Amino acid sequence: MSTVSLRGINLAFNGTAILSQVDLTIASGEFCVFIGPSGCGKSTLLRLIAGLETITDGEIAIDGMRVNDVAPAARQIAMVFQSYALYPHMTVRENMAFGLVRQKLPRDEIAKRVAEASRILQLDALLERKPGALSGGQRQRVAIGRAIVKQPKVFLFDEPLSNLDAALRGQTRIEIARLHRDLGSASMIYVTHDQVEAMTLADKIVLLRPIAGNPGLPSIAQVGSPLELYHHPANLFAAGFIGSPGMNFLPGRTLAADASGIDAEVLGLPCRALVDGSGLAAGAAVTVGIRPEHMQVGSGPWRARVTHIEALGEHSYLHLLMPDGSTTLQAKTQREDVQVGQTLPFALPPAALHVFNAQGDAQRRHGRAAVDMEAAA
Questions:
Q1: Is the domain of 195 the same as that of 74?
Q2: Domain limits at 348?
């Protein structure tokens, strides 16, 4: 078992809050990704789990054992950094074995562990090379191998792919996913700012938000599976952060609302959203959200002017300016006949809409809304 539990974690530097009200459980064998904008405390939280930062408020437990005062080396964790941190004068084999040699493990046990890690990461042909003769992706695999040989209960990854080019990031991401499947029972906690890494690797995503200047605001904006955060963001912050590009937001007010849905006025025109409107009074200010890939461009009651086109081959993203002169949207389309300056009609499909109340909290979407959108795509 390798359960990690965090309870009541609060942390401040020089009077500035960095982490607040962090309560989280990472199950044995789970791949958990911490994601969020710069300055939200995701790497700091990882370092607290590793014991590299001193916790001042709250409790961290691994397998039910409180580890607040346990040295990093005794926590049965292994950490992989973005900088590789390999010894340049040592071979791959020596780098991977170094920690085990310091623990004074028997030579045959060290050789067995290095051989197994090399097999998993396909490093057998590189064992006698030094880091200077390796590519960036190979160096990162060696750094991961050095973690594997420790046979830890928990793996901690601090933006391990940020120094790699796009092609190597994709390849190494697949290798890390395969490693998670192969190791099975070990938990993995992974910090990244890259949404593709988070969405493709995670069993569970922990979305963190900056809290400086917002005393009492919880650091965790939402916890859930990748698809849960995508289809059912809990608040405006989660809706705006998850997705690339982010969700479009339009100001509106309710015309009528009940458990079956919400009728709202958006930029002067009525629309309906298939969300639970319980608790919303008629006339209440709301924010209506829709993802660019769910916009229906080409027909509909709203009209907007194309100000920019990002052509990406198979599809394009249209930047749209509404007639009010201040509301901007993005829409994904496969049309190739659109020109900058053109005015286009569009529709807001009821099953695709999200609605957020005046406090920024999401009204619960009906269970089939996301399914209906997937079927229509």
A1: yes
A2: 246-376
Residue 92's nearest CA partner among 156, 138, 155 is: 138
Looking at the 3D structure of the chain, how many domains does it have? Answer: 2
Mark whether 122 and 222 lie in a shared domain. Answer: yes
What residues have CB less than 8 Å from 95, skipping those under 6 apart? 86, 87, 131, 142, 146
Residues 149, 1: Cα–Cα separation, whole Å: 18
One-letter identity of residue 224 = G
DSSP letter at 125 equals G
Residue 336 CA to residue 344 CA, distance in Å, equals 13
Q: What is the pTM of this model?
A: 0.90
* Beta strands 316-321; 4-13: pairing state: unpaired
pLDDT tens for residues 163-208? 788 887 888 888 888 888 888 778 999 999 999 999 999 999 999 9
Amino acid code (one letter) for 193: H
What is the three-class DSSP state of 332? strand
CATH code at position 322: 2.40.50.100
The residues, any chain, with a CB within 8 Å of residue 114's CB and separated by 6 or more, are: 93, 96, 97, 100, 127, 145, 149
The reply to whether 121 and 219 lie within a common domain is yes
Residue pair 117/92 in contact (Cβ under 8 Å)? The answer is no
Q: Is the peptide bond before 245 cis (omega within 30 degrees of 0)?
A: yes
For 289-312, the pLDDT digits (tens) are: 999 999 999 999 999 999 999 999
